[in-house]
Batch of 2 targets.
Target 1
Amino acid sequence: MTHIYAVYSAGGFGREIMPALQANYRANDVEFVFVDDNIQDEQVNGVAVLTYERFTAMSAESKKIVIAVADSKIREKLADKCEKDGIQFINLIANNAIAYEQAEVQEGLVLFVYALLTVNVKVGKHCHISAYSYIGHDCTIGDFVTFAPRVSCNGNVVIEDHAYIGTGAIIKQGTAEKPVVIGRGAVIGMGAVVTKSVPAGVTVVGNPARIFEPKAS
Ligand SMILES: CC(C)(COP(=O)(O)OP(=O)(O)OC[C@H]1O[C@@H](n2cnc3c(N)ncnc32)[C@H](O)[C@@H]1OP(=O)(O)O)[C@@H](O)C(=O)NCCC(=O)NCCS
């Protein structure tokens, strides 16, 4: 019987992380698949694409999945569905990423190539930490948080659930008494330099980061 390792979504991030999954788990009795209900192709980059229905109907010794959908709200819905169907979640830590043993992570993590979790870091469920992103000491990251590539998240920062941190953002360190808090669902624009806490649900851009008000069209 086969062990199936799946990436949920054959979109951009899903295709990026598949080679890291294959590198970690390749074995004779392992099969890799994409699960995607929106793609008609039978294969993407040489890997079979199955609908969720076909994936759940497959007989296998074990089925494990990592959810690569960028939209954190959709990611949460898919995670609920997989959990109800008894599918186990993978923690995909690319083999050149580093998570020190003093970092505590929950299920469904993607820690992509060259990413680093340092000491006394907590990371919630189904977070994506993309290539070259760094999370410093004593940071607490909520559930369904997304880090685009090359984020510098310095020490004593709290990032609440569903926040999105854009490429190359830099977040100033807080202190143990007064961490810098990125509120639930906040979006940090690419390249932003965040020098203080950001309220829930807002978007900030620039250096120093300020609330982004799209121009009225
Ligand atoms: C901030 C952000 C969410 C705004 O998205 P948006 O609403 O689609 O914004 P637009 O592209 O329509 O740009 C609107 C204006 O904001 C400016 N702008 C957009 N993003 C900006 C940023 N990160 N910093 C500074 N200005 C920015 C644009 O130049 C534009 O200015 P203009 O009105 O003077 O022409 C987005 O640009 C962003 O930074 N997303 C993160 C992207 C990322 O990291 N992707 C990683 C993929 S792996």
Note: The longest strand covers residues 3-8.
Target 2
Amino acid sequence: MRTEQIAKYWDEYAAEYDLEPDHGLLDSDTRMAWKDLLRMWLPHQASDVADLACGTGTLTALAAELGHRVHGFDLSGQMVERARAKTAHFGAAVCIEQADVSNAPLADSSVDAVLARHILWTLPDPQAALAGWARALRPGGRLVLVEGRWTGVGDDSVDDPEAMPWSGGVAASDLRAAVERVAENVQVVPLTDPVLWGREIDDERYLLTATVPARGRP
Ligand SMILES: C[S@@+](CC[C@H](N)C(=O)[O-])C[C@H]1O[C@@H](n2cnc3c(N)ncnc32)[C@H](O)[C@@H]1O
């Protein structure tokens, strides 16, 4: 039931979603800044990338422009429709699927990178989701997570936001601790440049990356 409520919330937001500067990346400098970030932190060779909770497919498209084969997933049918429209010109290099990324329908060791921006804060069991995402990575594969702890923001996508442990965002230190249970080589990169957000920010925003071991897991 809660899943349906969350999907409905995002369905209703989908038409306006890209109007936020960091969502639609309609400004060329903002778009270039995110593309540079992905160029730096996604694998440098053409790879299989899962964009989990891809929304309208903006980062999916940037990853595809960088030469990756991208499989995007989102719970919201309206988001999926927009993401498919936005990425149709990439043909077979991009596939968008409607799915719950709490339990992403990805085979174990099937992708080189998991990209997930602004989704962990809205999952009921983010630690379990992270474990599944790490399992989906091939040996040496990489998590690229963009999250934040936003001042004054709660979660109005459900009636009981307290059921989501990271409602309102997750501090980098907490996400680091969670990721260290499933991956290694954790790095946190503060995302303070206003160009990324279309404005000055005064809260915590960051990219966290980690890899799963080339053999075995920590
Ligand atoms: C803040 S948006 C982020 C979208 C995209 N990652 C981006 O950076 O623009 C959150 C997205 O998560 C999706 N979402 C929420 N819960 C989800 C779940 N359990 N599984 C898959 N997608 C989910 C919503 O439909 C929405 O598109």
Note: The chain has a mean pLDDT of 93.
